[in-house]
Design a protein that fits this description.
It contains no helices and 11 strands. With about 120 residues, the chain is mainly beta. A hairpin with a 4-residue loop joins strand 9 and strand 10.
């Protein structure tokens, strides 16, 4: 499985960005997609997940602002980020789970929110 993330950039506080993740290879076995982020000097944080049954989960700090979605037919996954805050600044990574842990990772995409 290969994952390609895109859509990061620089935005002002309160703005929006949409991250996309395109999956290729043996995508049939993917049961869950996720987005992680890592800010400088901080541990990697799981931001959102979506299962093949479209069940979603979010870390508390992004609930109500971020929406994860999945287009199974197109092997794509997205993260719509609204009302962005400076503390959302991080490198964001998409990930795919075939078993019980995230096995595959895309390259990171930088999200910077200016105050």
């Amino acid at each position: 499985v290969q994952l390609q993330a895109s859509g990061g950039g620089l935005v002002q506080t309160g703005g929006s960005l949409r991250l996309s993740c395109a999956a290729s290879g043996s995508t049939f076995h993917i049961n869950t997609f996720g987005w992680y982020r890592q800010a400088p000097g901080k541990q990697r944080e799981l931001v959102a997940t979506i299962t093949d049954g479209a069940m979603t989960n979010y870390t508390d700090s992004v609930k109500g602002r971020f929406t994860i979605s999945r287009l199974i037919a197109k092997n794509m996954m997205a993260l719509q980020m609204n009302a962005l805050k400076p503390e959302d600044t991080a490198v964001y990574y998409c990930a795919a789970m075939l078993g019980s842990e995230f096995d595959y990772w895309g390259q990171g995409t930088q999200v910077t929110v200016s105050s």
